[in-house]
């Protein structure tokens, strides 16, 4: 293949920009701006700071991508990975073989999971962990002889990943543009629990009733005997950081139980501390799901890892001895990868030793309170979130809650202006998302909020006038 001629004595990081532009198809990328600007090449990172190849440092207010929970440059995690890689980098876990970190991690995760979620299936990230959840739930109902019980109810604006099936679970409209959807009749979406955009005249409690009623009707319409599971993030992330009305998850879980529908909590973002607990479902929202999906923070982003946790009741059905020759035929080459699991064990150890969960419970509410100040800017319609995940929704008409046109690039402009000031935030649709490393201090939160004030003051009036 043809490649650009770059001087051989250039440093790799100088060659990277061109190599990237010419050969690397980036995920989730607007190729108009990509062609114009190319990539920012991040060279190194430490704590909450990342540095690009130009030597400019930035406060990483998104923890890489909701994942670098313990911050960058943790030598303990790197050492644990290195040690494991030197000792035994990989051997498969199919059938009867295992490795030390994967086995120990399964027990450590089970110990911290709610209810009887005692059994872990490993994968490579959030998408494959969600695929695993659905595939094994289908297998579960097949084994019970309930072959019709297959449909999955998901939510508009939910994000569950990018494999073909996880993308079908995803309810964000923009994610599907230009693509096909598989499983049209297998996956059904109900409304997002979007308090900011609830029907006019409803208070929070009425909106909760409305959402639960909608789900009840949908179950009735599809037939409970045909519905296998409901899937939801405890707090929606990529869909715009949406916190459900009080009691929503508990009531939905109850409705699911009444209809023998399994509740899958997608805790890829909320698990491992972002909301101040190991898992948010029980400790924040008061219910125990049948399945929990985890990734990202489980290894603090240091190595790819997904984990799908199943209850005793499901495990009893899927992991009983089969008819002779029968095998649970699901798994990935890298299920239980020793280096990823070593990173996760080191992560759990640090979370515990440094009291990260109580730190999040202290600084999380501080960040939410300070961010509310941004409502003083006319361009800010809503500020919401929970602990260390937050969303700032931009509007051109605050009264009527009307967003900017998609081609206005409003959130991209805020992202660029904040980055110039040394803070990296994330534009997602009409929302600026924040998910800093859990080790962030109040002083660093002040820097983020002060920078956003300056950014909104600079960019806001121009956007309003456009
Ligand atoms: N579920 C949720 C809630 C997520 O936020 C993400 C990723 N942002 C995924 C699933 C998919 O995870 P991955 O990109 O690791 O496949």
Automatic annotation (TrEMBL):
Cofactor requirements of the protein: pyridoxal 5'-phosphate
Tagged with keyword Transferase: yes
InterPro entries the record matches: Aminotrans_3 (IPR005814), Aminotrans_3_PPA_site (IPR049704), PyrdxlP-dep_Trfase (IPR015424), PyrdxlP-dep_Trfase_major (IPR015421), PyrdxlP-dep_Trfase_small (IPR015422)
Keywords: Aminotransferase, Pyridoxal phosphate, Transferase
A Pfam family this chain is assigned to: Aminotran_3
A GO term, aspect molecular function: transaminase activity
Family classification: Belongs to the class-III pyridoxal-phosphate-dependent aminotransferase family.
PANTHER family, sorted: AMINOTRANSFERASE, AMINOTRANSFERASE CLASS-III
Protein name as annotated: Adenosylmethionine-8-amino-7-oxononanoate aminotransferase
